[in-house]
Amino acid sequence: MIETVDTVRYSYLLEILIRRHHHVLLAGPTGTGKTVYVKKMLHGGLDKSQWTTIECTFSAQTNANQVQD
Fold this sequence. Notes:
Elements: H1 5-19, H2 34-45, H3 64-68
Helix pairs in contact: 1-2
């Protein structure tokens, strides 16, 4: 990821919200880096002794029953 003012800003906000135990929902157009911000935080920005991560992948064909199973 190439760091820009926006990527630094969003990464910082994501980190602050997560550390203060706030729920976070990133929304925006395709290709704006939402997944990159989250994966960067989950895989390198959190203390492994306090946090556990689980990744779920969704697509346009994913339905509620598949998520619950």
